[in-house]
Structure formats: C-alpha cells, structure tokens
Amino acid sequence: xxxxAGAVGVVLLAAPxxxxxxxxxxxxxxxxxxxxxFFGSFSYDRAAVTGPNNExxxxxxxxxxxxxxxxxxxxxxxxxxxxxxxxKAQPAYFSTTVEPTPKCRAGYVCISQSSSFSxxxxxxxxxxxHARAWSTQTGKTAxxxxxxxxxxxxxxTDRVKAAIRKADCYxxxxxxxxxxxxxxxxWVPTKSGIAxxxxxxxxxxxxxxxxxxxx
Length: 215
Description:
The strands form 2 sheets. Strands 1, 2, 3, 4, 5, 6, 7 and 8 form an 8-stranded mixed beta sheet that branches. The chain has a 3-stranded antiparallel beta sheet with strand order 9-10-11, with helices on one face. It has 3 helices and 11 strands; from the N terminus they run E-E-E-E-E-H-H-E-E-E-H-E-E-E. The longest helix is centred in the first third of the chain and has 23 residues, at 54-76. It has 2 domains: 1-141, Heat Shock Protein 90; 143-215, no CATH class. By secondary structure, it is of the alpha+beta class. It is flat, with a radius of gyration of 19 Å. A hairpin with a 5-residue loop joins strand 4 and strand 5 (39-50).
C-alpha cells in the first residue's frame, strides 16, 4: 500500500491487481481511498492498460478513465446542490469496484464497474453497474451490432429473457425488454458468449449478470 498527498487529503493506494487480456495486453486495477468531505468512507478503483503497443495501451487507458471516472467525480467533486444534501446526509459512503473480465473475447479488453452510495437518509444503498469493451486493434468501444445483427436481435433478446427467468434473483414479473440495442447498455464479449449486466431492481432484488451464448 502506498501513501499519496492530494488536494482532498491523504490518499491510500492499494497495490494493483492485474488481469491478462488478449493480444498481450494487461488490465491493472488500483484502489484509492481519499479523504472526501462529508463522507465517512470514499473509495474507488482505477484501471490502466499495459501491453505490446504502448500507444494503444495509452489510448485504452484513456478510454477506461473516461468511462469509469465520471461516476467518481460526481460524488468526489459535488456541485452546490449536492453539497447541501450531503451536509444533511453525512456521513455518506461511496465506493466503486472495477473488475476486468478474465475471459474477454480475443482482440478486446473488457471491464465492469459497480458503484454504491449510501447515507443515513436512505434505507440500504443505491447501486449501479456499468460495463464496456474496447478493441485492442482500434481502441474503439465495442458495439453490440458488431456481434448481433439486427436480424438476429429478436431471437437474441428472447434468449436473454429465458436466461433472466432462470436467474436466482428473478422477481417473477413480466420482462419488459424490447428487441433493440438500447435494451443492453452494459455488456462485454467473452469467449463463451455475451456477458450482460442489468441494474439492481430491473428484474430482481440485486444486480443481475448472465452470459448468453453466441448467436
């Protein structure tokens, strides 16, 4: 563990954990715990990429930062309206966890990020999930239509619905999931299929993750 002095106080940096991706690229995750006003605990993960092409690794790291840090900055650097709320709700608690996908499809690096926020004013916590993949050849964000054609989308959606019904935390209600790409904002390509995440309470009592085999 390392110590780093920052504008928000002493920051504790945990030693990075690394997951080998494809094409020789490695995703490293480092945890930080800065002292942030109004928060009893504040922690977040950062992801960085190393690999055979330094320029591509730099691009992928930049993409991951742009994807993961807005959720952190929203609470770390609150606007005036949020500060008023936090003054009443302290101590608040915030954390993010970034997990590289160990079986990401060849040619891509993949991560998921869960974030949790709680205060004494709310029962439980607010939890969100986000996931993205980037090409190690172009650095661009993977698009679902690269893997599932528009013609295959209805059948793919039906298979996702079937997987949801089999999930342990499925709430039993009707599954409102239109057959369009917007229904699947959080997914990554893996060796065995497409891993998909749904947020807390959308279809069950917790964040749901499932993998659907390739179309």
